[in-house]
Specification:
Elements (H helix, E strand, L loop, with lengths): L1 H15 L16 E3 L11 E4 L2 E4 L1 E3 L3 E8 L2 E8 L4 E4 L2 E4 L2 E3 L11 E4 L2 E4 L1 E3 L2 E8 L2 E8 L4 E4 L2 E4 L3 E2 L11 E4 L2 E4 L1 E4 L2 E8 L3 E8 L4 E4 L2 E4 L2 E3 L11 E4 L2 E4 L1 E4 L2 E8 L2 E8 L4 E4 L2 E4 L5 E2 L11 E4 L2 E4 L1 E4 L2 E8 L2 E8 L4 E4 L2 E4 L3 E3 L10 E4 L2 E4 L1 E3 L2 E8 L2 E8 L4 E4 L2 E4 L1 E3 L11 E4 L2 E4 L1 E4 L2 E8 L2 E8 L4 E4 L2 E4 L2 E2 L11 E4 L2 E4 L1 E3 L4 E8 L2 E8 L4 E2 L2 E2 L5
Length: 551
């Protein structure tokens, strides 16, 4: 009976709804998306934690960034190009760094300063170094004079050493000494003395005169064996000649009426021989002359380049110089002795009864790379000319013609066989984003900032310097003579009560609301960089600004 009563009460309670029996519900874990940057910010490396996994911002090459972020609790990603003036490094777009291989303004080491795809190597202007270096992450340059006792060579101030190609005082070699980028070559002080340049203590230029030894003479800056010369060019019995070696001379003479004692040169030494006069000839005044009844001319008539003798009936007449350019030429005409006056051509003069070549060398500009000149030797003329960027300068080395290629100095270019003041722009033209200098001759005009928003840019207009003032534009500022990616604000800074934006390098970042309009993401500038801050609004966040907030 008791069991029946209890069962009846249970049925009654269930019917009245006083007891509810439920099964426990299964609970799925809530997936959360957390962004360390709280939004898209390509200028800071960040990560997103999503579903127990971490996604880190990363670089694709040097200019593209993969950026992870949360959008309504979901994981999103985007690929962004870094703006001009930036590179991607370690998951963020950062300002392109300025790097100097010689670590600053270092005139004792040649360096190359690089920023992005632009690089400049240190170089020389006369005794000065044009030194490139980094300042405020921008490429700058300065002209630095080399200290006393040094010279500029290949972009470096180095000790001014003295170098001699012959390694001492050697009169058998025409050496050249180089000191302070200038060359000095040995030359003949007179016919028996060498003017010798040499180095003293490997650093000082010195010179002295050295006499040639006996049997030697100076020629081309060296002592050479005294040459043997013969006026009748060998064993010529029909011409009275004289052999000379040094201060000694020997003239042909008659041994008797039919024989000549003939001097001549062989192996640079003086030799002699007995030469018989042929039939019809007799020896007279050191030569065989014709004594027959017919007219005979030893140079076969009218040859002004050969000294000849014309003879008949024992009478002889020898060609001679009427003046410095005219030969008195004897010849046979109708079996009689005749004479005419023959003029030597240009480049020749009359010497010992014949026309001989006069070897002379003259230089119109005296090795002057800034003057278009020419060198004349005998009947030939050599004109200075341009070879690429160099000027080929002709000059005289005694009676010989020499040529040397010279680089035109900075600010000059080769035109018309000479170095002329041209216009050279180191940044390639009217380019406000790169610092450069315009060179006109030895004068430089460097780009500079008019104020924080404008750059005065110099460039070449033909062969003259021109300038143009550029406005850098939003997100750029003028620094060290160039428009560079800077940071600018429209709301004056970190101002939660004003909707604004911050821009750098042509990209703009607007303040916006997040977290259900309770949080403001405020962008502002710190130096040249864009930063952001999450601000909890006391009221609400409305269209990028807080109605009230805790300052």
């Amino acid at each position: 009976m008791r069991a029946i009563i209890l069962f009846s009460m249970l049925i009654l309670l269930l019917g009245l709804g006083c007891v509810t029996i439920t099964q426990p519900e299964s609970r799925e874990e809530v997936i959360k998306c957390n962004d360390s940057e709280e939004g898209v910010n390509i200028y800071n490396p960040g990560y997103v934690a999503y579903n127990r996994l971490t996604y880190v911002d990363s670089c694709q090459g040097t200019s593209r960034l993969t950026e992870y972020y949360c959008d309504k609790g979901e994981l999103k990603s985007g690929v962004y190009d870094c703006p001009s003036g930036y590179v991607c490094r370690e998951g963020a777009c950062v300002v392109v760094p300025c790097e100097d291989s010689d670590n600053g303004n270092n005139i004792s080491q040649k360096g190359t300063t690089t920023k992005g795809n632009v690089s400049y190597a240190d170089y020389c202007i006369d005794k000065n170094v044009v030194e490139y270096y980094c300042a405020n992450n921008e490429i700058n340059s300065v002209v630095v004079p080399c200290p006393s006792g040094t010279v500029c060579s290949d972009g470096v101030c180095t000790v001014s050493l003295c170098e001699d190609t012959e390694s001492g005082r050697d009169v058998s070699i025409a050496g050249t000494v180089t000191k302070d980028n200038k060359s000095y070559t040995d030359y003949c002080f007179d016919i028996n003395t060498v003017f010798e340049y040499y180095c003293k203590n490997d650093t000082e230029l010195a010179s002295t005169t050295i006499p040639c030894s006996s049997g030697y003479t100076c020629n081309g800056g060296v002592c050479v064996v005294v040459p043997c010369s013969d006026t009748d060019a060998g064993q010529d019995r029909y011409t009275r000649g004289t052999v000379t070696k040094g201060t000694l001379s020997y003239s042909d003479y008659c041994v008797n009426a039919h024989q000549v004692y003939e001097y001549y040169c062989s192996d640079n030494s003086v030799y002699w021989n007995y030469l018989d006069c042929p039939s019809g000839y007799t020896c007279s005044d050191g030569r065989c002359i014709y004594t027959g009844p017919e007219c005979r001319d030893s140079d076969n008539g009218g040859d002004k380049y050969i000294k000849g003798t014309t003879a008949k009936d024992g009478l002889t007449y020898t060609d001679y110089c009427a003046d410095s350019t005219t030969v008195g030429e004897y010849y046979c005409s109708d079996d009689e002795i005749s004479r005419e006056f023959l003029t030597c051509p240009p480049g020749y003069s009359c010497s010992d009864g014949r026309c001989v070549s006069v070897t002379t060398c003259s230089d119109s500009d005296g090795v002057n790379i800034y003057t278009y000149g020419h060198v004349t030797r005998d009947s030939s003329t050599y004109y200075d000319y341009c070879s690429g960027t160099q000027v080929m300068e002709y000059w005289c080395d005694g009676t010989n013609v020499r040529s040397t290629a010279y680089d035109c100095p900075t600010g000059y270019e080769c035109s018309g066989g000479r170095c002329v003041a041209g216009c050279r722009d180191t940044d390639g033209g009217d380019n406000p984003s790169t610092y450069g200098s315009v060179w006109i001759g030895d004068t430089a005009y460097g780009d500079r900032c008019s104020d924080s928003d404008h750059v005065l840019e110099y460039y070449c207009s033909g062969n003259t310097a021109a300038s143009h003032t550029w406005e850098c534009g939003f997100g750029y500022v003028c620094s060290s003579g160039a428009c560079v990616a800077g940071c600018e604000e429209t709301d004056g800074g970190n101002a939660p009560g004003i909707k604004g934006s911050a821009g750098k390098g042509g990209r703009s970042y607007k303040d916006y609301c997040a977290g259900g309009n309770a949080t403001l993401i405020e962008y502002y500038c710190t130096g040249y960089d864009v930063n952001n801050e999450s601000i909890n609004c006391l009221g609400t966040c409305h269209d990028g600004w807080c109605t009230s907030w805790i300052s």
